Amino acid sequence: MTDAKRLPPLLKLALELGPLALFFLGNAYGDRFGFPEGQRIFAATGVFIVATVIALGIGYLLVRKLPIMPVVSGIVVVVFGGLTLFLQDETFIKLKPTIVNTMFGFVLLGGLYFRKPLLQIVLDSMFDLTEEGWRKLTLRWALFFFALAALNEIVWRTQTTDFWVSFKVFGIMPLTIAFALAQTPLLLRHEIKKAGEA
């Protein structure tokens, strides 16, 4: 039986970042499509929902499976983005990162409590770590997700909508990449060496 197909890294990145980029552009240039300045977030939200669904669909067509985290995030985008458009209340789309990151944090902590590091399931194809390594990495990611949720709450409650959109697109992703890179020493310490690699 052949290994499950995987998306090329650049295509995977494009499918993950594409909807965010369109969300930013929709908010920046929504006025060109008849949306007044205070209403551009609704144009951006509509674009974000459609782009997210299309990105998930393309990913599924290419590899015939959907990763857990993008699916959960996509569902929340559709639900809370839909509420934003239906009720004309931007609060719902601003809450999306808080809800998703808090959910991921609690799910990871719950897995640790039941001695099932769920991060291992999500990243198993990428890393081969000791049990202690998976525990530590899972705890760190759980705490990071909580930190992102708190940061999102601070930003959307204290800053303008335009600033929040820019933070969502140009703040959260670099922070996540930096955090992931910062875990490299832990990964190297707890990596299980295959035969012949020692």
Automatic annotation (TrEMBL):
Role of this protein: Plays a role in cell envelope biogenesis, maintenance of cell envelope integrity and membrane homeostasis.
Protein name: Inner membrane-spanning protein YciB
Topological relation to the membrane, as annotated: Multi-pass membrane protein
InterPro entries with a match to the protein in the record: YciB
Keywords: Cell inner membrane, Cell membrane, Membrane, Transmembrane, Transmembrane helix
Family statement drawn from the similarity comment of this UniProt entry: Belongs to the YciB family.
TM region(s), chain numbering: 40-63, 68-87, 99-116, 137-155, 167-188
One Pfam family named in its UniProt record: IspA
Parts forming coiled coils: none
Compartments, record wording: Cell inner membrane
GO cellular component assignments: plasma membrane
Domain of life: Bacteria
